[in-house]
Design brief:
This protein is α+β, with helices and mostly antiparallel strands and 98 residues long. The chain is built from 2 helices and 4 strands, in the order H-E-E-H-E-E. It is elongated.
Length: 98
């Protein structure tokens, strides 16, 4: 199956499903590859999660928006920052849809 590059509006709709956190410290990337769509979110200070609803319902919503049937978490990474002030903490999530 060949995956088409989604419109910027569709990508923004997907981005809006996630908790915003501190926008200046949130990096969102979307990549279309030969084996599916990849979403990567990196945040400082805040865990990567959805605004509302269950993880499953949000996965289903993303899959529906992209016109695919499958979705999975490829990787999740977290690094604890300073024990006193949390400076330097970071969180990253990569999802794949195909």
């Amino acid at each position: 199956m060949k995956y088409k590059q989604p419109t910027p509006e569709l990508i923004e709709s997907i981005r809006n499903l996630f908790e915003p956190g501190n926008i200046k410290k949130t990096k969102f990337s979307f990549d279309t590859k030969s084996d599916g769509y990849y979403i990567n979110i990196k945040k400082m200070y805040n865990y990567v999660g959805f605004r509302s609803g269950s993880v499953l319902s949000n996965y289903q919503q993303i899959a529906n928006l992209l016109g695919v049937e499958n979705g999975d978490e490829v990787s999740r990474y977290s690094y604890r920052g300073c024990e006193t002030c949390d400076y330097g903490s970071s969180y990253e999530l990569t999802l794949k849809f195909w």
